[in-house]
Amino acid sequence: SVASTKVCSLDEEEGPPLEETPIPIVPSSISDRYKVGRMIGDGNFAVVHECVEHSTGRAYALKIINKGKCRGKEHMIQNEVAILRRVKHPNIVLLIEEMDTYSELYLVMELVKGGDLFDAITSTNRYTERDASGMLYNLANAIKYLHSLNIVHRDIKPENLLVYEHQDGSTSLKLGDFGLATVVDGPLYTVCGTPTYVAPEIIAETGYGLKVDIWAAGVITYILLCGFPPFRGSTDDQEALFDQILLGQLEFPLPYWDNVSDSAKELIVSMLQVEVDQRYTALQVLEHPWVTNDGLSENEHQLSVAGKIKKHFNTGPKPSNNTPGVSVMTLDHDFSIQRSGSLDFYQNPGMFWIRMQLNTEKMYHGLIIIIFFYKLSNCIFNINNNELIMLKSTF
């Protein structure tokens, strides 16, 4: 059973072993308390190592952010860390402590070794609606907590839902990667996210708020029950996908939905309402019978979704340098790219979806540029002297 307990951590995933890397030299404030071990992931400006606390023997993830690689982007790090300081919830990756030096910022994070959501489904021998309901319960609890703080995550997707394995053998989920999270104090207009999970109001640029997270959770729930996303465009036509999302015409095609309960379908419809006012809140999701009744416990029919997930989402061993929880690139404010590296594996493995808004008063006010990069697996992007620059990187 995949998710029977209602709770995964930063920067840890299964896959091919990483190449041997030297143990970093860390300040005494770190080494006196933690033994730093192997690297378990890296991003554009951060690496993540396992570490063990000397006094307790507990393992954590040590995220080391290179400030030199973040010049001009300091605000994005500050924003992410500020949010991580605030959030403390069993379904959210926990920041244990932070240590700041002149050249690096060290974040000691909770460590979870169970892989991500899709890993859990594709590796289990038995998977039912009850399991899917437990997963949604975990996610909705995390969202409810964030929204109570007026925090929107904006990048809820299976890769950021990590599996925590309890001592009794049960598993639960934790939400990680807060690189796009922000406090909502009015309508947001920054276009960001991953295409498969992005809400229609983000695409429409009409202003959005907390409920974009509910839309993403609805898409994930749909996938959990059939193995493919509700809105699908061809691999070479991203705009077709956006058009489908804007229309929000939801279907439950046979035979894939034959054995799924009407209660589950009803909940998904309520989570994927194009009209934001009609879309469920996290509390309404948690109070829905399909969630409170553990996915209708009488429905123990096994769902055959693992193969479809593998086909549509390119699951399996992941590149060693692509680690859940390591923020790839999260710029903000003027001359900014809000996300570089949000991948939609269903649409086209290796395709990056980037939407850039240049909104200074002097140049390109209100100009929206949509750029699609195909088959670029090792690149990041930066703004330099008002130009878009592509850089080689270990993405």
UniProtKB/TrEMBL annotation:
Record field: catalytic activity: L-seryl-[protein] + ATP = O-phospho-L-seryl-[protein] + ADP + H(+); L-threonyl-[protein] + ATP = O-phospho-L-threonyl-[protein] + ADP + H(+)
Source organism superkingdom: Eukaryota
Similarity-based family: Belongs to the protein kinase superfamily. CAMK Ser/Thr protein kinase family. CaMK subfamily.
A Pfam family this chain is assigned to: Pkinase
Region ranges (Disordered): 1-20
Gene3D superfamilies (UniProt xref): Phosphorylase Kinase, domain 1, Transferase(Phosphotransferase) domain 1
Keywords annotated in UniProt: ATP-binding, Kinase, Membrane, Nucleotide-binding, Serine/threonine-protein kinase, Transferase, Transmembrane, Transmembrane helix
Residues reported in the UniProt entry to bind ATP: 63
EC number from the UniProt entry: 2.7.11.1
Protein biosynthesis among keywords: no
Domain Protein kinase: 34-291
Listed GO MF terms: ATP binding; protein serine/threonine kinase activity
Spans through the membrane: 363-383
Protein name: non-specific serine/threonine protein kinase
